[in-house]
Design goal:
disordered N terminus; alpha+beta; 19 helices; 4-stranded antiparallel sheet; disordered C terminus
């Protein structure tokens, strides 16, 4: 379905209702939707599509957002979106625009344009705004592409625009070669306390004043967790976009129609698998949040708690005091405030007050939110002969875009950020680099590597930890 090219008009819906309506029958809205879907092959209701051509009917832009993704974004997904673009490798080239959210790569929308420029990004992000509308506490995370920055400021003035700390760190490596600067930047970007930020940034400023000035000019509130204007939760990079680049590596070689179908098929599988995984979860929290909460629970075992009142507690450990307020869900360590999961100090306070720390987690980490996120399904397209295509769509002509391939061998890999090095594969069989276990041609070693024993040790530790944490769910 498309807002710009409506397949189901009001007349069509009215005629369908008139023909099926009977006196005394309770005809509900969901019955109307079901009848329209079955009769007219509407497989993915709520899906928004838009294609733009130039005056010569040549392809220019494509936007698409599946209804299943739009439906639950506002209610069940953290309002943090990662935005990026990658190049296409097919005959007519172009750029693939992506918007994703959540740690599990929740696809919100995608598009295709000629290149990453002001006009294409403004068109794409305008379509995205028409889909999601105004979202409270929205945070947009991207690299330092100038077109993205201009468009976000123009179309999303209420949103907080954060920078990917990984890309910024790679830029820092290009400009400043001191390794200690890179280590200090990582620490200062991920610091929670203002005091920790000041201490680490002071060290960085002493070692490299020019690097410190560079980071200040970029905007401290855009990359430092402790100074962020919005709720970034734990999303500090656009790593989910980079993961998607790898997944779609082969699909980007295909023509546009086939590439879109490959993406739809991929999302169909993801939604089905994740729906089953969410329904089979045994605990109240999503897997990642539950593991993080238990790590913090074990860490809090040695903390000393002093009550201040019914909601506030002073938690001591190694001579450091941290004040926890369970009512406002805050702690002076600021981990609770920024991650929206109880920190170790808050868990110690909950244990002292015989309270459940699960109730203090953000709703976005709950099992019910995960189930809700994948409650809708993405359906495959039916056979061409079963399609019902409106006349205005059927008569529309879309010609290939004007494009000119550059001379030389076609580029198959993306251009890496400054300072980014190519990852070298390590063989798990012989330990050498440049190949993997399947392609290894070396003789089988008499004494296998210690990694297998390490894996067994890790697995045994996990089993022991799971056994020791079984009563924890009853006491948290």
């Amino acid at each position: 379905m498309s807002r710009d090219n409506r397949h189901a008009s009001s007349w069509l819906v009215g005629e369908s209702m008139r023909q099926t309506y009977q006196v005394g029958r309770q005809y509900r809205p969901k019955d109307i939707i079901g009848d329209i879907r079955n009769k007219y092959s509407v497989q993915n209701p709520g899906t928004i599509t838009n294609i733009v051509t130039n005056v010569d009917n040549q392809f220019k832009y494509l936007f698409m957002a599946f209804g299943a993704c739009i439906f639950r974004f506002r209610a069940s997904i953290r309002p943090v979106i990662a935005v990026d673009g990658t190049f296409l490798k097919s005959k007519y080239l172009g750029t693939f625009f992506m918007v994703y959210s959540n740690n599990q790569i929740y696809p919100l929308a995608f598009g295709i344009g000629d290149s990453e420029n002001d006009a294409s990004w403004e068109w794409f992000l305008t379509k995205l705004y028409n889909v999601i509308g105004h979202v409270d506490d929205l945070v947009v995370v991207s690299d330092r592409h100038g077109s993205i920055e201009k468009t976000v400021q123009k179309l999303y003035p209420h949103a907080s625009h954060g920078l990917c700390t990984y890309h910024l760190g790679q830029n820092l490596k290009t400009k400043f070669k001191k390794v200690v600067v890179h280590k200090l930047f990582h620490d200062v970007a991920h610091a929670y306390r203002m005091s920790d930020f000041d201490t680490i940034f002071g060290q960085l400023e002493m070692i490299s004043p020019t690097a410190a000035k560079y980071l200040v000019d970029v905007g401290v509130n855009r990359w430092a967790r402790s100074h962020s204007n919005g709720k970034r939760y734990n999303i500090m990079t656009t790593g989910i976009i980079e993961c998607m680049n790898v997944v779609l590596k082969d699909a980007r070689d295909l023509p546009i129609v086939r590439m879109v179908e490959e993406l739809r098929n991929l999302l169909q599988i993801w939604f089905s698998n994740r729906q089953q995984q969410a329904l089979s979860m045994k605990f109240e929290l999503a897997t990642w949040a539950d593991m993080e909460l238990h790590l913090r629970f074990n860490k809090s075992s040695g903390y000393e708690v002093e009550p201040i009142n019914s909601w506030e507690f002073n938690v001591k450990y190694t001579g450091v005091n941290n004040q926890v307020n369970l009512q406002t869900r805050s702690c002076t360590c600021r981990v609770f405030d920024l991650d929206h999961i109880p920190c170790a100090h808050a868990i110690a306070a909950c244990r002292y007050g015989n309270m459940s720390c699960y109730t203090l987690c953000s709703q976005y980490y709950m099992k019910n939110s995960l189930i809700s996120s994948y409650s809708k399904s993405i359906y495959p397209t039916r056979n061409n002969k079963d399609w019902v295509i409106p006349e205005d769509i059927h008569c529309r002509v879309v010609l290939p875009p004007k494009s000119r391939r550059p001379a030389g061998r076609p580029r198959k890999e993306r251009i890496r950020s400054g300072g980014e090095t190519k990852h070298t594969r390590c063989c798990g069989r012989c330990g050498d680099y440049g190949h993997n276990r399947k392609t290894c041609k070396r003789p089988i070693p008499l004494h296998p590597r210690d990694e297998h024993s390490c894996v067994n040790i890790v697995e045994s530790n996990i089993n022991i930890q799971e056994l020791s944490l079984q009563p924890v769910h009853q006491s948290l």
